[in-house]
Amino acid sequence: MPTTATIGPGSLLWRYASDLRSLMPGAAAGLMQLMHPGIGAGVAEHSAFFDAPFDRIYRSVPQIWATILAPDAGTRGLAIRDLHRGIGGTDEQARRYHALEPETFWWAHATFTWEIFKAAELFHPERLSADDHELLYAETVTWYTRYGVSMRPVPADYAAFQSKFWHICAKELELTPAAARALDIAKHGSDTISLVPARGAVFDRASRLVAEKPMRLVTFGCLPSIVRERFDIQWSPTDQVRFAAIALANRQGYRMMPTRLNHWTLRNTLRYIGSQTREHRYQPPPRDQLSA
Q1: CA–CA distance from 247 to each of 21, 24, 54, 73, 121 (Å)?
Q2: What separation, in Å, do the N-terminal and C-terminal C-alpha atoms of the chain show?
Q3: Alpha helices in the chain (DSSP H)
Q4: Is 279 helix (H, G, I), strand (E, B) or coil?
Q5: pLDDT tens per residue, range 152-163
Q6: Nearest by Cα to 214 from 185, 253, 190, 243
Q7: Which range (50-64, 116-130, 209-223, 272-286) has the least confidence?
Q8: Who has greater pLDDT, 50 or 32?
Q9: Which of 269-292 are b and which e, b meaning 16 or more Cβ less than 10 Å from the residue's Cβ?
Q10: Alpha carbon of residue 196 to chain centroid
Q11: What pLDDT, on the 0 to 100 scale, is given for residue 192?
């Protein structure tokens, strides 16, 4: 059984998840989720992903971050689990899948665990010690317990987590139709899709012009190198230099931002996104239909 540790305002997980920089590897994490056969199939079949690829992110991230930061985090986790009860079916290769299959559900959480560690590694000036890595990982295990699902897939410690994570990246991820769509948008952008859940042609166009190139660099720069190599994602030495400059700017620039302002901005950003997407969240079928 993996070790757990308390999550609260003084914990490492709380500290990093409360920081705006925790969201920066999020697009890479989302792409790796879509590369998982079960998750990719579930997103393609049970959402309007191909019409609005980023809407799933807008709907999901505020709810998932609430399972760390909200006073009723445990209740929020169980609600997220229950949203997935009816998500299942057969993918394009005739393979059965279900969102609550233990390895499938854990992989989604694993990418968020990876996201927290990646943000700390790339965008924060301080470095985690070996003990910090173990403590932060134990806190992410506590985070996972809040979903009330099987703990069987959860690695025992940080080293085991790294080993399993890299194995899945190297051997099990694939270019699902949903991942192919997301990858194409990340590579080439889109004239019709905005990165923020706002309305208005002028605002949407401005957001694309400002965010498109940096978003590509951050998405592909954060991806594990094995994922870039397996899926032929071009990444040049110039890209690496530009990405390193973005990471350095974040490590240094946030020194000038008061911590309270940083946390206030993240919380209010998540609240805003949540308020804009609440009416469009996935609604599971009634339980009597699930058991029919």
Answers
A1: 10, 10, 23, 30, 10
A2: 35
A3: 12-17, 26-34, 37-46, 55-69, 73-83, 102-123, 130-145, 158-171, 177-188, 201-222, 225-230, 237-253, 259-277, 287-290
A4: helix
A5: 999 999 999 999
A6: 243
A7: 272-286
A8: 32
A9: ebeebbebbeeeeeeeeeeeeeee
A10: 16
A11: 45
**273's tokens:** 């996104």
54-113 pLDDT, tens digit each:
666 667 888 999 999 999 999 999 999 998 999 999 998 999 999 999 999 999 999 999
CA angle at 282 for the pair 35 and 84, rounded to the nearest 5°: 60
Number of alpha carbons in the 13 Å side-chain half-sphere of residue 254:
22
User: Which two tokens mark 135?
Assistant: 């403590």
Residue 201: per-residue pLDDT: 43
Distance CA 174, CA 227 (A): 10
Average pLDDT rounded to a whole number, residues 192-219:
55
Go through 208-223 and write b for each residue having 16 or more CB atoms within 10 A of its CB, e for each that does not: beeeeeebbbbbbbbb
Give the Cα separation of 33 and 47 in Å (integer).
15
CA distances to 161, 249, 251, 259, 263 from 256, rounded to whole Å, are 34, 11, 10, 9, 14
Q: pTM for the whole thing?
A: 0.88
Q: From the CB of residue 115, how many other CB atoms can be counted at a distance below 10 Å?
A: 23
For CA atoms 170, 230, 196, 278, the dihedral sign is negative
pLDDT at res. 54: 61
The SS3 call for residue 130 is helix
**Distance between CA atoms of 121 and 118, rounded to whole angstroms?**
5
Which residue bears the tokens 């239909």? Answer: 289
Place of tokens 């393979």: 95
Cα distances from 102 to residues 39, 151, 194, 230, 285, in angstroms, run: 12, 8, 33, 25, 21
Instruction: Supply 102's token pair.
Output: 């233990």
